[in-house]
């Protein structure tokens, strides 16, 4: 086994087979392996926050202990959970840097390259960081994936920690908010859930579009929003599109999202792309020629994450193989980045999981033979979406819906098409589902 990271992949595989997908993605999947000290038999794991730490300690430590015993053959390894804000922050951060793990610590205003395409959003984020809840509340930043929305959220957070150390903030993704709510309802911990989200000075929500169409989640977020807003706490949201284009977002939420300031981010122009490449090279201490920077900026035009990823790849090639950055290595790095950025194939399981959250039923309900109206509707939509996205033969899809036959598949798809043709709300829900599943 070459590294703790290799072992961690095996530990995760062990855990996946013993808990639900929702529980795994919510709790285990968010852990970052930091260090394995065999001398002291201690494994250091980075978790998101104190709430995450407590949930793991109380509910999932036995599972993790069993996994470590299975993989390492040691039954007395101590698990040390550290958070970005705990007293061991610097130690954990240094270990992350040595292991080459990306850190939100470099996502600051100082490392954010400003150009014509993003200067308005950047200025708004700066204003919010300087005067939380006193400038623009809420701040709603929108734009395509890979343009720096998440960077701005972390920049606000990092600035807050430096200049307003007594204020608290919380970062969450829209779909994770849904998953945590489901787990809170399931385990009867909604009071803890409310306390977590309604008692912070700044709430930062990435990809808020993923709560759209989910009635329970929107209801919960509506009250969370109101509580924070009325308490004069700052709310910052990002999305891939403006509120008016999130079709299944409730009107009361759409209105509130538009109370403050809407700021869009567009793809960077050539000059900004060059600046981004040079800044990343400076941070990574790697020299790139002007012609090489031009080559990269010309090949990758619409995604900042890809530009930075190529520079990281060139640095890795140099460290691992001694390859000096050249046109050939840059082309190879670009190919790697483009291939890696291709979304993984969408599985029927993922489709069923997303539909179940939207229609407030369980994945098992959708696969079952239950005929309750809400379950039948969810099942038909899941079949329709599965066909639209995967283009698998109907027989193959039917096998993953409890062995349903071809005629049942045809009927389900026809019913959804009929509903979408008659009801604009139904059409909007299905279209948003397809977009959100494809964009994950």
Structure in words:
The protein has helices spanning 4-16, 21-28, 50-72, 89-99, 119-130, 149-163, 174-187, 190-198, 215-230, 251-257, 270-284, 290-299, 304-321, 327-340, 348-359, 363-367, 373-390, 394-399, 406-422, 424-439, and strands spanning 32-37, 42-46, 78-82, 139-142, 169-173, 202-206, 234-239, 261-264. It is α/β, with parallel strands linked by helices and 440 residues long. A hairpin with a 4-residue loop joins strand 1 (32-37) and strand 2. Mean pLDDT is 86; it is low at 87-103.
Percent in strands: 5-15%
Supply the number of helical segments: 20
- Strand line-up in the sheet with most strands: 5-6-7-4-8
Mean pLDDT across the residues is 86
Describe the main β-sheet briefly.
5 strands, parallel
How many beta-strand segments? 8
Assign an overall shape. Answer: globular
Radius of gyration: 23 Å
Flag low-confidence runs: 87-103
- The end-to-end span amounts to 31 Å
Helix percentage:
55-70%
In terms of structural class, how would the helical and strand content be classed? Answer: alpha/beta
The arrangement of helices and strands along the chain is: HHEEHEHHEHEHHEHEHEHHHHHHHHHH
Describe this protein with a few key phrases:
440 residues; alpha/beta; five-stranded parallel β-sheet; three-stranded mixed β-sheet; 8 strands; 9% strand; globular
Give the SSE map.
Elements (H helix, E strand, L loop, with lengths): L3 H13 L4 H8 L3 E6 L4 E5 L3 H23 L5 E5 L6 H11 L19 H12 L8 E4 L6 H15 L5 E5 H14 L2 H9 L3 E5 L8 H16 L3 E6 L11 H7 L3 E4 L5 H15 L5 H10 L4 H18 L5 H14 L7 H12 L3 H5 L5 H18 L3 H6 L6 H17 L1 H16 L1
Parallel strand pairs: 2-3, 4-7, 4-8, 5-6, 6-7
Antiparallel strand pairs: 1-2
């Amino acid at each position: 086994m070459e590294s703790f990271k290799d072992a961690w992949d095996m530990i995760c595989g062990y855990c996946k087979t013993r808990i639900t997908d929702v529980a795994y993605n919510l709790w285990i999947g968010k852990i970052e392996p930091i260090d394995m000290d065999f001398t002291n038999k201690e494994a250091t794991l980075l978790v998101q926050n104190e709430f995450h730490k407590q949930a793991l300690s109380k509910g999932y430590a036995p599972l993790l202990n069993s996994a470590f015993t299975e993989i390492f053959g040691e039954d007395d390894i101590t698990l040390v959970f550290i958070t970005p804000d705990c007293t061991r922050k610097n130690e954990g951060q240094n270990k992350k840097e040595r292991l080459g793990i990306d850190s939100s610590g470099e996502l600051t205003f100082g490392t954010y390259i400003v150009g014509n395409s993003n200067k308005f959003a950047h200025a708004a984020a700066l204003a919010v960081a300087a005067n939380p809840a006193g400038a623009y509340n809420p701040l709603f930043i929108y734009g395509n994936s890979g343009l720096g929305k998440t960077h701005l959220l972390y920049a606000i957070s990092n600035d807050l920690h430096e200049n307003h150390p007594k204020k608290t903030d919380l970062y969450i993704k829209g779909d994770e908010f849904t998953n945590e709510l489901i787990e809170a309802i399931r385990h009867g911990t909604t009071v803890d859930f409310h306390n977590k989200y309604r008692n912070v000075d700044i709430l930062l929500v990435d990809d808020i579009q993923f709560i759209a169409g989910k009635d329970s989640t929107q209801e919960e977020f509506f009250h969370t929003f109101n509580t924070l807003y009325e308490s004069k706490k700052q709310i910052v949201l990002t999305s891939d599109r403006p509120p008016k284009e999130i079709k299944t977002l409730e009107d009361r939420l759409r209105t509130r999202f538009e109370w403050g300031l809407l700021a869009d981010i567009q793809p960077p122009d050539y000059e900004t792309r060059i600046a981004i490449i040079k800044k990343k090279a400076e941070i990574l201490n790697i020299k790139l020629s002007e012609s090489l920077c031009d080559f990269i900026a010309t090949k990758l035009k619409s995604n900042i994450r890809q530009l930075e990823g190529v520079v990281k790849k060139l640095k890795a090639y140099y460290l691992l193989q001694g390859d000096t950055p050249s046109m050939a290595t840059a082309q190879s790095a670009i190919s790697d980045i483009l291939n890696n950025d291709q979304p993984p194939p969408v599985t029927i399981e993922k489709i069923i999981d997303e539909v179940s959250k939207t229609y407030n039923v369980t994945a098992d309900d959708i696969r079952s033979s239950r005929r309750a109206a809400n379950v039948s509707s969810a099942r038909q939509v899941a079949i329709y979406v599965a066909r639209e996205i995967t283009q698998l033969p109907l027989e193959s899809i039917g096998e993953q819906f409890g062995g349903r036959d071809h005629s049942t598949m045809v009927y389900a798809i026809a019913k959804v098409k009929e509903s979408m043709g008659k009801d604009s709300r139904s059409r909007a829900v299905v279209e948003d589902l397809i977009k959100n599943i494809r964009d994950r």
